[in-house]
Amino acid sequence: MQKQERKVVVIGAGSVGTTYIYALMHTGLVQEIVLIDIDEKKVMGEIMDLEQGMAFVPPVEVRPGDYSDCADANLIVVTAGAKQKPGQSRPELIQCNADIVKSICDKIKSCDSQAVLIMVTNPVDTLTHLALNQLGWPRKRVIGSGTVLDTARLRYMLSRHCGIDTRNVHAYILGEHGDSEVAAWSMAHLAGISLKHYCAICQGCDSRAEHEDIMRRVRDSAYHIIDYKGSTFYAIGLSLTRISAAILRNEHSILTVSLLLQGEYDIHDICLSVPCIIGNTGVERIVTAGLSEDEQAALKASAKTLREVMSNIKF
Ligand code: NAD
């Protein structure tokens, strides 16, 4: 039987887009990766650099393209955006990226694509919502990378603290990819043992204070990395590869992507992250976990923050 060819279109040839391609190339998951950017020279340079490593990865074509490539793509990943300029306010940056995403979605829409779209450009939740409105696709096919990265940070920091392999630590960050994000401690477990129960047995630290400290470090991670080196791209590149694998391999994996909530968690008409089952059609099901009262209240507060950001964008 002939194996189905898989194609990914990446829009945005910056640090995030190219690091994602670099990570994706190693997986053997796709046969074709197409790169689009307004800076055509940068696209040529990035592609030459990537394709000259072809001897060391499974066969894959990486090439420049245009929006017509979206028509038969399995996945479209949007990382295009502007960075904050000196003197530019955050709301001005948001409006600038909203305008970019709007123009990109108009071009994608004309292709009649059946792909799943992953929004990465920040503010990711708001721009996922904007893309969904602009494309008019089913909500399950327009998702944001959301808190998949923040969740990875939480799992890593907890694993380091507890001295346990990160892959055996299961914990989720929900809500906004940003300052109002929420750690769902009530859902956290270490290989089947609830974190609460594990801490009671371990008694190795003041667990409440430790959880607060870990959450603070998760929330501040991006600020520190940007302060040290200008931008973040490795861990988001790997996060995008993980989401891509769940979609392209129809894995039915649970990941905290951002999508439009329509009453789930008692939140209406706002995009934010909750645990979702991901397969080749995008979000197959939203997992509605029983959060604690505090967590549920914090999630609703996060939705309120996002609603305010959304209301300030001019469409
Ligand atoms: P970058 O400046 O390195 O690259 C952005 C690219 O977008 C540039 O190559 C630019 O030419 C291109 N671009 C701008 N307007 C375009 C348009 N209209 N069409 C096509 N391409 C266009 O930025 P980066 O570091 O790669 O970050 C990209 C975005 O990802 C930013 O918004 C950043 O905040 C975001 N990000 C999100 C997460 C997350 O977890 N969601 C993590 C890291 C970064």
Structure, described:
By secondary structure, the chain is an alpha/beta fold. The chain has 2 domains: 7-144, Rossmann fold; 148-311, Alpha-Beta Complex (L-2-Hydroxyisocaproate Dehydrogenase, Chain A, domain 2). It has 9 helices and 16 strands. The protein has helices at residues 15-25, 40-51, 90-109, 124-135, 148-162, 195-202, 207-229, 234-248, 293-311; strands at 7-11, 32-36, 61-64, 75-78, 116-119, 142-144, 169-170, 173-174, 182-183, 189-190, 193-194, 253-255, 258-262, 268-273, 276-279, 282-286. Strand 13 and strand 14 (268-273) form a beta hairpin. Helix 1 packs across helix 8. Nicotinamide-adenine-dinucleotide binds at residues 11-17, 37-39, 42, 79-83, 97, 100, 103-104, 120-122, 124, 145, 149, 177, 231-233, 236.
Concise synopsis of the structure shown:
By secondary structure, the chain is of the alpha/beta class. It has helices at residues 15-25, 40-51, 90-109, 124-135, 148-162, 195-202, 207-229, 234-248, 293-311; strands spanning 7-11, 32-36, 61-64, 75-78, 116-119, 142-144, 169-170, 173-174, 182-183, 189-190, 193-194, 253-255, 258-262, 268-273, 276-279, 282-286. The chain contains 9 helices and 16 strands.
